[in-house]
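haha ok so turns out i had the wrong file open the whole time. this is the CORRECT one, sorry everyone. sequence first:
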Amino acid sequence: MICCSFIFAPGEYDQEFFELDKEIGDYAFSLEGFNRVEKWQSADGTTRNVMYFFEDQKSVALLARFPEHRTAKGRFNEWYRGYRVDVFELKASYGKLTANLNTGAN
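then structure:
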């Protein structure tokens, strides 16, 4: 499994941000190799992490090439104070977690 972890310091969001964010999320969820998304934020809300999990590199590449995603990446400085993307291969995951991980940071 491949995880793309988008770690960011939120800034100011406008209506266009929310529209692009929804289109990107809808597209990611529609990909056959998309597995799930998990969202986290620091206790003070100054740092957030949205982790997208994919079954294969092909699905990651499709999201990376999605036109709305490319538009959003080009405009990051309008909406974020900073960001970092970490892409890694998840070899294993253990344990039981009952919390709903699909809520939290937007």
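The chain has a mean pLDDT of 91.
again sry for the mixup
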